[in-house]
Amino acid sequence: MGEFHLFESGSAVTVIIGLWMIGITRVPTSLTLYGTQSAVLGLMAMYLGVLRAEPLLVIVGVAVIALKGIAAPAYLLFVAHRLDCRRDDGVSIAPPLQFFGALGALALILLLHPLRAALPESSLPSIGMLLLGMIVMITRRLAISQIVGFLVLENGIFLYTIGQPHTMPIVVEIGVLMDVLAGVMLAGLLAFRISREFESIDVTELKELRG
Amino acid sequence: MTVLLLLIAYLAHIAFLPLLFIGLVRWVKARLQGRRGPSLLQPFWDIAKLLRKGETISETATSTFRLAPLASLAAILAVALMVPWLGLPSPIAGDLILAIYLLAAGKFCTSLAALDTGSAFGAIGASREAAISVQAEPALLLGLAALASHARDSRFSALLAPGGGEHTIILALLVGAAAWLCAMAELSRMPIDDPTTHLELTMVHEAMVLENSGRSLALIEYAVALKTVLLLGLVSQILLILAGNQTLAFHYVLSIVLLAASAVALAIAETVMVKLSWRRVPNMLSYAIGASALACLLVAMRG
Amino acid sequence: MTAIVALLPAPLLIAALALFATRLRVVPVLAAILMGIQCAAAAWAWFPILGTPRRQIVEGIGIDSHGALFVLLTTIVVAAAFVHAVAFFEREKLSEHAPSHRQIGQFYFFASLFLIAMYVVILSDNLGYMWIGMEATTLLSAPLVYFHRSSRSLEATWKYVLICSVGIAFGFFGTAVLYAASQQSGALHVGSLSLAALTTHARQLPPGMVRLGFVFLLLGYGTKAGLFPLHNWLPDAHSEAPAPASAILSGSLLNCALVALWRISDLARAAGQQQVVRATLLPMAVLTVITAALFLLRQRDIKRLLAYSSMENVGIMATAIGLGSWSGFALQAVNHSFCKVAVFLLAGNLLQQCGTKNIRDLRGLLTAQPGRTLLLMLGIAAVAGTPPFGSFLAEWRILSFAADKHMPWVVAGLVLSLAMAFIALAMQSLDMALGNKTIKDPTNVRTRFAVSLVLVPVILLLGSLALGVLLPSSVLALLGGGR
Predict the structure, then answer these.
(1) Which of A13, A103, A108, A139 to mutate to test the interface with B (most CBs of B within 10 A)?
(2) In terms of Cα–Cα distance, which of C238, C284, C236 is closest to C258?
(3) Distance between CA C193 and CA C175 in Å, rounded?
(4) Chains A, C: CB pairs < 8 Å
(5) Could C131 and A206 be called an inter-chain contact, meaning their C-beta atoms sit closer than 8 Å?
(6) What is the pLDDT of residue C475?
(7) Number of domains observed in the structure of chain B
(8) Any CB–CB contact under 8 A between B134 and chain A?
(9) pLDDT digits (tens, 9 = 90+) for B194-223
(10) What's the rounded Cα separation, in Å, for the pair A35 and C204?
(11) Looking at residue C33, what is its pLDDT?
């Protein structure tokens, strides 16, 4: 498949997975979906690396699959299992409505393309994923789901970086990956502490500090 | 001339395929559960038995109750001749909007009949069926409309033609997924409803036909079987868009194979999956609308 | 190159020492001594670079006068905090919630690595390294905020990590956009993340992408700086951290984020996009000051009060950046760091003695301990921008710069909020100082006066006073000169 077709199909698949995650209330399912999304992105990166004859990009792809596709979801699944949080009912809006709202927002962005002057059309999927990540973070109550939303956001940005004709220097890409993962680990640790302190990881319980 | 041949072919298949399909589903399910199960032809004997039996009709029922099974069967039969679910071109050139509305008309008749009997379970079933169709019908309509938009033609023959363009793959997959979910919803199959349940409070379609017996029950069972084959045939055709151009015979063989495969898939689903709690059914069906809406979005962006 | 290497050994040594905290009880003292050596090393390596227009790029690290100033400032702030922490932690061990040795060890470990991350942010020429350093500062300072292990600090840490990470993720998107923009310019067609290269070829970058990249980078680094409306984490994090950590966070981390903002707005201006800078950064900055002033009026917690005051100062400095005035920004940064660190350390002492942060519970301090309370009030006055302290001069410079640029709304907004903030701070501190004393048990060893506890704040306040009273043009030239 040509580079453009691969990129388009791959980004369509990642956006569909992202949209799927918005309607999911079960935490382990959303983690598995995130792992799949990262794996798809890693495969895309590897394939693009081969097409553009950039071996470093292939290495980045492998790292993404290993770390973001397998290690991070496994760690978060372990955390979810220990905290015994199975289902996240979200904040006040029913999942189908969240889903349709996200779909509507995505449609608006894709059809109206407000940043037409600044960004080419090939970066639309990544902006869509940014939006989806933000929606997941805003509409969820459990700490773990907010972490997943943040990770989807990161995936959107990663999609943007591999869509450019020349990828970023590998030091930066690996550094970003490490930073994100360190953030995930830290957030997981904090979730443990929150569960011990507040008896649940419902972030709407964190309301002592106000004003 | 060709139309006559096609008509005869379709009628022949309509006579045997639906009940055979149901028999296959039950047989596979039995084998999966470790039983020997009834023979593949058991549904035929069941229908024959029901046709011989007399009917018990509620005193409060009117002619609506008597005519409804015939009406719904007529509607489904008409759609079965309009949609090329066999892989062969359909004898009547069908439009997607007509097909969906005819199916809805059939459903309407059944719901009326259920309410007509004055039984509470009938009313529950009818209201649930209506609630499900609120989400399932738009999903199917949108999905087929996306395909029609892509093909610039709303007749089924053009809709399901193996398409060009590099986006057909994702389009076909999305619409196929939506159509599968809609089929499960319309046919009251897992995970929306368990067809073998004995608990009236969990039934959707079966609650509507609780009051039917004898000949009208036979007609209804047969109509449901025909609708099953019709909708799953439609799903197979949508997926066959991906296969590209082939000869007619090969296309026909592939369609039959896919139908059999969907029977097996249905059986596996009903053995493995757990029925969704009623409050979660809209969540599931919103995915159908979502997939169709995404397909429409794709067509709107790419033409 | 030696300049960079000179900065590394002391913090790394402190981190290594801190790993053995359970066995070595002298870690705080050793850390303070090592930070003193670090100050000397930084001064020796970086002082000559101050004020010179020289600019050198080594492996993505830029060595220039602007960076030198903030390296020195950061080093001084952290050294001051570490020196004070020696006596502070000694007292802390006598209190009810005595920190364990492990906690203190973790504090020093993360604080020293945090220092290195801040150096990376200040000195980076490569946008990618800057981002990595910024995210690293978030992750490394989270354990500092979580020091007390209470539910409030847990909540503060959670909000801090989440909000800053999301903001910085947007910042990375901005970096990626700028990288893509560089690929479309003529000379850099393989793409470049180097600020120097981007600034040289700034006119060739596609303007739409520069604007978009700038806005996202503003969102990202603005979150880290605490600009409105991304400031939610600031009061929580700065108030729940222990006093030395609050001092470092307010005194140097905010500066790092602002330096990053300066560099990217410089780039935007070089690309001819000062309009977008005026349209986005400036309103955000002014709104930050106004919001902070409004919140200051209703605070009941002394450390939160100071955190909102930090937010207000960030807004003032961001205004300076938006207007393009380096000297205003630098002067305000130096003064704010000195005063804020001093006041946070003094407030920490107060909290240690009285066991409560609630202003309503702290009354009659002037009668209970006149000297220290006077010092605290002077510190708060310095932070509020009272003459003769240096912050007054710095704010005056920024206001006159804004007036020169014909921006009446900016001037009006700033003056109004500065007045509101001053009133709020004065009200709260007078609330604490006057009235009948409520401190119980004055003979407790905790409330005894110790010179070591007030030494550092006094020195810092004197420094700020010096900057306010005598400001020879040589000092101004050292700060980077010009307008």
Answers:
(1) A103
(2) C284
(3) 8
(4) 116
(5) no
(6) 66
(7) 1
(8) no
(9) 888 878 778 888 888 888 888 999 999 999
(10) 40
(11) 86
Locate tokens 């907004």: which residue? C413
Chain A residues in contact with C209 by the CB 8 A cut-off are 118-119
* Interface test with chain A among B132, B135, B142, B166, by most A beta carbons within 10 Å: B166
Question: Considering only CB atoms, which chain B residues are within 8 Å of A95?
Answer: 283, 286
**What is d(CA B297, CA A112) in angstroms, rounded to the nearest whole number?**
12
Distance from chain centroid for Cα B149: 23
Q: Determine contact, residues C226/C289, Cβ cutoff 8 Å.
A: no
By percentage, how much of chain C surpasses pLDDT 90? 32
Q: CA-to-CA distance for A192 and A200, rounded, in angstroms?
A: 9
pLDDT of residue C223: 93
C-alpha span between A106 and C61 (Å, rounded): 40
**Which of A146, A173, A186 is the best substitution to test chain C (most C C-beta atoms within 10 A)?**
A186
- Distance, in angstroms, between A126 CA and closest chain C CA? 10
- Residue/partner pairs of C185-189 with CB below 8 Å, 24 or more apart: none
Q: Is the Cβ of C125 closer than 8 Å to some Cβ of chain A?
A: no
Measured between CB atoms, which of B166, B290, B301 is closest to A19?
Answer: B290
Res C481 pLDDT > 70: no
**Test mutation, A60, A113, A153, A179, chain C, max C CBs within 10 A:** A179
Is the CB of residue C38 less than 8 Å from the CB of residue C10? yes
Those residues with Cβ within 8 angstroms of residue A152's Cβ, 6 or more apart along the chain or in another chain: A18, A21, A34, A37, A129, A132, A133, A136
Min Cα distance A188 → chain C (Å) is 10
C55-90 pLDDT tens trace: 777 777 888 888 888 999 999 999 999 999 888 888
Tell whether C142 lies on the interface with A, counting CB pairs under 8 A.
yes
Enter the tokens of residue C412: 């009006």
ipTM associated with this complex: 0.88
Q: Which range (A75-89, B14-28, B86-100) has the least confidence?
A: A75-89
- Which chain C residue's Cα is nearest to A166? C190
**Is there a contact between B286 and A96 if contact means CB atoms under 8 Å apart?**
yes
Interchain CB distance below 8 Å, A95 and B170:
no
**Does a structural domain hold residue A211?**
no
In tens, the pLDDT along C30-41 reads 888 888 888 888
Average pLDDT (A66-84) is 90
> Is residue A63 situated within a structural domain?
yes
Q: Chain A closest CA to C291's CA: distance in Å? A: 11
Q: Which residues of B are less than 8 Å from A25 in CB distance?
A: 283
CA distances from B243 to B162, B232, B233, B238, B246 (A): 7, 17, 15, 10, 8
Position with higher pLDDT, C106 vs C186: C106
Name the residue in chain C with its Cα closest to that of A160.
C176
- The number of folded domains in chain A is 1
Q: Which domain holds residue A52?
A: 3-205
**Which residue in chain A has the smallest CA separation from C188?**
A166
Whether A210 maps to a domain, the answer reads no
B257 has a chain A CB within 8 A of its CB: no
Q: Which of A47-61, A145-159, B97-111, C444-458 has the lowest mean pLDDT?
A: C444-458
Chain B residues whose CB is inside 8 A of the A12 CB are: 170, 298
